[in-house]
């Protein structure tokens, strides 16, 4: 079991402050400077539980973020390891990597004319076969899909107004 220390600290500080405040409010803890102000001490009776609830909320929120970062953060991390634009092969260039909701979006540019593939539909079929065949076997893609993110490949073909869009949801690979 791995302890998420960021969540423990983020949530633990308000929880401890709330317990201390409740102790003061109900008289379990004595403080000479605070007990001289009875109006203030009464407020600790409701302020303590409020701080505890806030600490629990904050801890869960931090934990959820650490366990499932946003797609934008993942895309930024991937893009930081790759110098963009990156030439993939003699006709394919990776221009950008973005993230939106739970989707990692790769934006490619094909520098060969669409006629080389026999038209838009043939190019789309060839690209789909290539990506769908590779997505479930590539270790990097598998890691992304296993964590619940979808992949989207967008190809801009030279002299073609339509992009080719290929989506790979986690369930395609059994995740």
Give the topology, please:
Blueprint: H1 5-25, H2 32-35, H3 38-67, H4 71-81, E1 86-87, E2 92-100, E3 103-113, H5 120-135, H6 139-146, E4 150-158, E5 163-168
Helix pairs in contact: 1-3
Number of domains: 2
Supply the helix-strand structural class.
Answer: alpha+beta
| CATH architecture call of the largest domain | 2-Layer Sandwich
Q: Which fold name is given in CATH as the topology of the largest domain? A: GMP Synthetase, Chain A, domain 3
Shape call:
rod-shaped
Write the H/E string, N to C: HHHHEEEHHEE
Radius of gyration from the alpha-carbon trace, in angstroms: 27 Å
CATH class division of the largest domain: Alpha Beta
List the defining traits of the structure above:
single chain; 175 residues; alpha+beta; GMP Synthetase, Chain A, domain 3; five-stranded mixed sheet; 6 helices; 51% helix; 21% strand; rod-shaped
Structure overview:
The protein has 175 residues and is an alpha+beta fold. It has helices at 5-25, 32-35, 38-67, 71-81, 120-135, 139-146; strands spanning 86-87, 92-100, 103-113, 150-158, 163-168. The chain is rod-shaped, with a radius of gyration of 27 Å. 17% of the residues are buried.
